[in-house]
Amino acid sequence: MNEEMRAFFTPPDLKAAKQRRRREVSVLEFDQIPEEMRAIGQGKKYMIKTYGCQMNVHDSETIAGILEQMGYEPTESEESAAVILINTCAIRENAEDKVFGEIGRLKTLKTEKPELVLGMCGCMSQEESVVNRILQKHQHVDLIFGTHNIHRLPHLLKEALMSKEMVVEVWSKEGDIVENLPKSRQDGLKAWVNIMYGCDKFCTYCIVPFTRGKERSRRPEDVLAEVRELARKGYQEVTLLGQNVNAYGKDFTDRDYRFGDLMDDMHKVGIPRVRFTTSHPRDFDDHLIEVLAKRGNLVEHIHLPAQSGNNAILKIMGRKYTRERFLELVSKIKKAIPDVVLTTDIIVGYPGETEEQFEDTLSLMKEVEFDSAFTFIYSPREGTPAAKMKDDVPQEVKKERLHRLNRLQEEISRRKNEALRDQVVEVLVEGESKKDPDVLSGRTRTNKLVNFRGPKHLIGGFAHVRITEPRTWTLRGEWVGEASVEKVGS
Ligand code: 5AD
Ligand code: SF4
Asked: Which residue minimizes the CA distance to atom 3 of ligand 2?
């Protein structure tokens, strides 16, 4: 890497990153696309390949929005694309391996079609080692930009089109909040809405505080205006996005307004369903529980990552809660919302995790009875504290633990779904089922997938469905009638 490029990077530095909280955040408005770039994509197509979480999926919608303002149109075929961008995920090693595989594979296309702009963005771009590897081994890549540089895309694309050199712009320091970014949403019923960016939790295994920067909350008036606008356009559901939504508002210096307040205001907005992800158990406060218990458009589903059921592991993970505190929170939530559906994330095989410590996770799962869980084997991430921890647990043992955990969860999920047999649930009908066009498919308030036979005009609205065949991951049912869902507020 040359000196000029070096200026763009700093490797993950925990000490420096923890200092960052004090800086003020400014809110900027997205500039119009520069005059000379507004028609640059006319007659040309773009393709974005997205890996990772909902935040990335939504970032891709922003990138698509910017490209469309430059005249580009979407395509599903690599061969017809003038621009291919890979929006990457860094959370685990296998996510990164897939991206490198994809970049390698696209070399042939780039060689055949030198005018193609091949770019990489997202979380992997924020890692110095990844950028170095691309600079050294994948010179066919034209453009790399980071998670804080999305609004700069028109300028970067212009540079990439004009220069023969690889264009790299990765701001290692998170910038400000950019409002009014254009968005090309993939779905006409359900929308993602950012409420905050970044994470200051620094769980010891996690790369996110480095790739996504410090916590910055969008102003509530901007978030609420976006949701109202989506409701006006006919959207039926929004999912509020943040790496740790429970920290929403902690960074405001001009007001005392937190996530519970935001949800209370959402409750008054005329959109039928409001979800949020992801919660951190540590910051989940009583006010929020009280607000969620008002229901209405606030659905009865909370994704609450536990990560482990053992106190020693939770401590070295830096989760800042104990098993007891977690269980206390769960029981408070269940008391306030008895039919709540809880889902979680679990990491097995943390450095040094013993069989007994793992069994504490199993017992936590039995005690809480999550409806479903995303389960992962720990994957060391360069620059995070856990990557330096001594790990004497063989990979085979980790795999076997994951398998046991998954078997247990399957059993619980099946039991939970079985309890819905003969019940009538409200389904937001999203479309035809992927497997059978005569079957409709949609989701309950608790985000469970339901398949049933019914007339096509139900698509886009709500239906009441009686569950006749509960399965482990999905529910089958029969249509009992259209449902009207009250829209209150403005
Ligand atoms: N290894 C394995 N799983 C991880 N997660 C985050 N970082 C890692 C890692 N290094 C999991 C956590 C988190 C979810 C999004 O991904 O469970 O909640
Ligand atoms: Fe990563 Fe979530 Fe922990 Fe933040 S709260 S460091 S995003 S696991």
From this structure: 203
